[in-house]
Specification:
- The protein folds into two domains: about 120 residues, 3-Layer(aba) Sandwich (Rossmann fold); about 180 residues, NAD(P)-binding Rossmann-like Domain (Rossmann fold, 3-Layer(aba) Sandwich), CATH 3.40.50.720.
- The protein has eleven helices and twelve strands.
- Strand 6, helix 6 and strand 7 form a beta-alpha-beta unit.
């Protein structure tokens, strides 16, 4: 915690960053830069699911990770913080309209999470294609006989399809280059010239599912993408394809996904996110040999911690110094 209040700019940090021993669960998130800049900061008193007026009162900026931000967050008399800096890229639990109505900027950290999430996506692709989870179970069981039933598939030369081709997905493109994959994508607003230059064939979601050996979900969750991947879309999948989701769970209709996996039409799934988290202990996904699961944390690395923290701290310092931060999220 900094005690340098000379600047008069005060920063609050949501309590979910700390474990019971008071240690930052993310490790080094770059708060030393605030110390060097003489910015006063402290952790909030309570770990809450939704930021309350009392949590944000008296701060010029709040750095937060898990808590939601709703209209009720601003029910206090104010003044409200100038900035809510989210540690991460998702903002589906942030009421952007309420923030905007109260003159509060919201930033995210796509530069910090970019490589970490792209690497996590590649990890899931390779783990799914090589049946890493079930092969681990085989070794632990002591009976190696079933291993002949789980022949893996190489990624080289395969067609990889993207649902969403934003900041992180374009970084994944660079990681795929050594595998000489064909790439197709569905993503609104992509410059056709950019796509041609990077060897990406643009199509719609149905075209991605029909053409791809591996389908990677990397879109933002919003009204348009909620249950975008449904039974109709899954029925179009190339037999044996692998579905990877490192974005948000509700983009995929989980019940339809289970049925596609049970039918054998979809070859497998690798999921870091789910419709409801934590995943229910009786979920059919847990018992499936062709499914790789992670608890919405595969990208959580020291690289991501420092990257997200550094990006959020930069946004805080930008606001302190009268600059507009780079990664402001605006209401749609």
């Amino acid at each position: 915690m900094s005690d340098g209040a000379a600047s008069g700019f005060r920063v609050g940090i949501s309590r979910d960053f700390l474990d019971q021993a008071g240690r930052n669960v993310w490790g080094d998130i770059g708060l030393d830069r605030l110390d060097r800049e003489g910015v006063e900061y402290r952790y909030l008193d309570e770990d809450v699911d939704e930021l309350r007026p009392s949590d944000i009162a008296g701060f010029d900026a709040v750095l937060f990770a898990r808590p939601a931000v709703t209209a009720a967050t601003f029910a206090g008399p104010g003044p409200h913080p100038k900035l809510l800096a989210r540690f991460g890229v998702g903002y589906d639990t942030v009421d952007l309209d309420a923030c905007s109505a109260h003159g509060v900027l919201v930033t995210i950290t796509p530069d910090g999470a970019r490589r970490a999430v792209a690497t996590a996506a590649l990890t899931m692709i390779l783990a799914g294609l090589h049946h890493v989870v079930v092969k681990d179970r085989i070794v632990r069981s002591g009976d190696w006989a079933p291993r002949t039933r789980f022949m893996g598939r190489g990624l080289t030369g395969k067609t990889v399809g993207f649902i969403g081709l934003g900041n992180t997905a374009t970084d994944l493109l660079t990681l795929l280059e050594p595998f000489r994959c064909r790439v197709v994508a569905s993503s609104p607003g992509i410059d056709p010239d950019w796509a041609r230059e990077h060897g990406v064939t643009m199509t719609d979601a149905a075209g991605v599912f029909e053409a791809s050996d591996v389908i990677v979900i990397m879109a933002a969750l919003n009204a348009q993408t909620h249950h975008l991947v449904n039974a109709d879309l899954l029925a179009r999948v190339r037999p044996g394809a692998l579905l990877v989701n490192v974005a948000r769970g509700p983009i995929v209709d989980e019940a339809a996904l289970v049925e596609a996996l049970r039918s054998g039409n979809l070859g497998g799934a690798a999921l870091d996110v789910f419709e409801t988290e934590p995943l229910a202990s009786d979920s059919p996904l847990i018992g499936m040999d062709n499914v790789v699961l992670a608890p919405h944390c595969l990208a959580w690395t020291d690289e991501m911690s420092l990257g997200n923290g550094g990006s959020a701290v930069q946004a805080i310092l930008d606001v302190r110094d009268g600059r507009t931060p780079k990664y402001v999220v605006k209401p749609r």
